[in-house]
Amino acid sequence: MQHRPHHHGILMLKLTLVALFWGGTFVAGRTVSQHLPAMTAAFLRYLVAAVFLVAAAFKMEGGLQRLTRSQLLTTAAMGATGIALYNICFFAALAHIPAGRTALIVSLNPIMTALLASVVFSERLGSRRWTGIALALFGAGIVITRGDLLGTLHDVSQSLGPGELLMVMAVLGWATYTLILRKAGQTMSPVAAITWATLWGLLFMGAGAAHELPTIAWAEQPWVVWACLVYLGAIGTVVAFLWFYQGVQILGPSRTAVFTNLVPVFGIALSALILRETILVSMGVGGAITALGVYLTNKPTNKPSTGAGKVR
């Protein structure tokens, strides 16, 4: 028992690093997107991730779980939404808009998930969660329009360009993936579900990237592109997932999910530090309002805990 504070501190550090790693994916993704097409970039990221995830599945669970027909369809849907759709839109968006701005739009993931859950599962959100959703959307509007909400009403194209629309599609894809993961989690371990989803996503993205791969001048790609792809696949995907999963097992989903609020903070800070991106006042104000909205939407109720929770 005397070692518990020490182990607790290590877990807190790991979860903080998970947020840092996820924040770093926007910087790495922005770098890769300047050199490679979105489909190819997404495929290569998950080619790296698949190698490590399969290895982790064998080490942690003795191999890949054999799937039923229903599980195959479920994991295929996960691969199509949270892996393929999200990552293709992620890289395509980063080719158009700054990494820090992208990170703030992605912070809407919990809000989109809550809205979809209310529609698909008829979940009652309650006044507090609706207030949180409204605040988060208002904050995102400030970020997306660079603080000019009224001006955007007259000319939507000045704020909603291809990059912003692609990131909204990415958020929709991730929210759908999260809801499907709930179903997969009823009969599969998270490691098995996500590994199979990754393999499906890799198949879909590989089919899409097949026509791009022969046209790329691979020898001319700078080393930083390869370093970023390894980081995205190994650190930003596999290590971050395994540590986050460890947090869910020990602390529970709700307490672990709190750390994801640090992702846009790290994303903006790293974008400014590494990419020299400008931090606009509208990003700070809108980001703070969005964070408050996300907190209210995901704040646990006062009912006694039953051990149930949500996995991001």
Task: Describe the overall structure.
By secondary structure, this protein is mainly α. The chain has one domain. Helix content is 74%, strand content 0%. The chain contains 13 helices and no strands. This is Membrane protein.
Task: Describe the SSE topology.
Blueprint: H1 4-33, H2 38-61, H3 69-94, H4 99-106, H5 109-120, H6 126-144, H7 149-154, H8 162-184, H9 190-209, H10 223-251, H11 253-257, H12 263-274, H13 281-298
Order of helices and strands: HHHHHHHHHHHHH
Shape: globular
Count up the helices: 13
> Could you tell me the mean pLDDT?
85
Q: Structural class of the secondary elements?
A: mainly alpha
Q: What count of domains describes the coordinates?
A: 1
Number of strands: 0
- Residue share in β-strands: under 5%
* Head-to-tail CA distance between termini: 30 Å
